[in-house]
Write a structure and sequence with these properties.
Blueprint: H1 2-14, H2 19-26, E1 31-35, E2 38-42, H3 50-67, E3 76-81, H4 84-94, E4 103-108, E5 111-117, H5 122-138, H6 144-154, H7 167-176, H8 183-187, H9 197-212, H10 215-229, H11 237-245, H12 248-256
Parallel strand pairs: 2-3, 3-5
Antiparallel strand pairs: 1-2, 4-5
Length: 258
Amino acid sequence: MCSVLAALFLAILTQPGLLGSVVTAQGVWVDSRTVGGFNIYARFPLSQIEDLIDDLGHLAEDIEAALGIELGQRPVTVLIFDSQHEYQQFLRREFPDVPYRRALYLERSGRAFVLAYRSRELATDLRHEATHALLHTALPMVPLWLDEGLAEYFEAPPGDRMFGHSYYKTVRFWARLGYVPSLNKLEQIASMEDMDSSAYRWAWAWVHFFIHGPPAARQELTDYLRTIQNYGVPGSLAQRTEARLGSLRTLFLDHFRM
């Protein structure tokens, strides 16, 4: 089966127009669906994850509404395997140099792909990686901390994004002790190796601040992203926001002590 999957994936990469016919001819994928800019192929009936498919169908709208930017029209291909073993075998064969993760966002030949397998974390994994994919179809670059912070934010179900994320209580606890993570330091992170668990948490915290904090902070984030979208040089988001709103430390503490 791995050789068939590999052949299919190579066909998808090299001949985009053959995607539908190859899928039908090989019978590799049990089900498929197109929603919200995603072409989804699964090794099991998608009716089994209907709520997640609905979430993905609205993810682009959610991101646009939260960030105030328009996302690209380039479709994202999502491949969902039925088991971890099937997924691992495929990755080992086709992407031996890619560090293993439960789910992946990849760019190949100008096309965006999300790969994952069915697990208890599938919903979180797909929303996280799909957020990466949507951001990178819309923006020429995304600062690493912001890329991961936004993916952490949108990985939660829509109803949990403001108060229900697992990070929320921890961040509030530290805020009550007067601790504010350095946005300047996050902006200097250039390698995934430096994105440890605390960096993910604090990146999420700053994204939460910019989306749910003072309206002027949200507008600054929108302006920052639009500058990037227009191939401008955005500078430091921390410095831009402090110049516009004043002390980030005070604003951050006020936000998470509310």
